[in-house]
Amino acid sequence: MQEVKEILQKIPLHNIQTVLASGNVYFETEEEDISTLQSKMKHLLNVEVLIKSEREMLNLLEKKPFEKISETENKTLVSFLGEKNSDFTLHKQKDFETLYVSQNVICVAISKNMGTTEAMKILEKRYGKNITTRNWSTTEKLLNFFS
C-alpha cells in the first residue's frame, strides 16, 4: 500500500492514508472536480477508482445500517456504486437481505452459509459491475477517518 500512497502523491492530495491492504485510501484535496480527480487516479493506478466524499461516508455512518443485525450469524457488506442507483427497493431472498439502499451505497447482510462471491454476483446482477464491496469492519475503519 506504500506504493499506492507514493503514486497518489503525484496528484494534489493531502493526508494520504491507506487502510489495511483493502485498496482503500483516505485523502484530502481542494480539487472540486471529482470526475477529473477520479480519472487521474485511474490512469496512475491502472485500476477502477471510486471516490466517496466525507458527506457520503458520514451519511452512511448516521444510518447505522447493521444496528439490528447479529454479526455472529451474518456477514455484513457495504457496496459502493460507481453510478447513481435509481432502484431503492429492498431485496430479500434465502441467506441474503438488503438493509439499506441509497443512490450510491447498498448495505446487505448475508448468512454465514453464503459466500461473499455469491453475494457479489447478486449485487452485480442487480446494480451493475461498477461496484466495490467491503465488509462492514473495513468500512468502519474508513469511517473512523471522518468521525
What does this entry look like structurally?
The chain is of the alpha+beta class and 147 residues long. The protein folds into two domains: 2-45, no CATH class; 64-135, no CATH class. Helix content is 33%, strand content 27%. It contains five helices and seven strands, in the order αββααββββαβα. The chain has helices spanning 2-8, 34-45, 54-63, 116-127, 136-143; strands at residues 14-19, 24-28, 74-81, 92-93, 96-101, 105-111, 131-135. It has a five-stranded antiparallel β-sheet with strand order 4-5-6-3-7. The protein is globular and about 45 Å long.
How does the SSE layout of this entry go?
Layout: H1 2-8, E1 14-19, E2 24-28, H2 34-45, H3 54-63, E3 74-81, E4 92-93, E5 96-101, E6 105-111, H4 116-127, E7 131-135, H5 136-143
Antiparallel strand pairs: 1-2, 3-6, 3-7, 4-5, 5-6
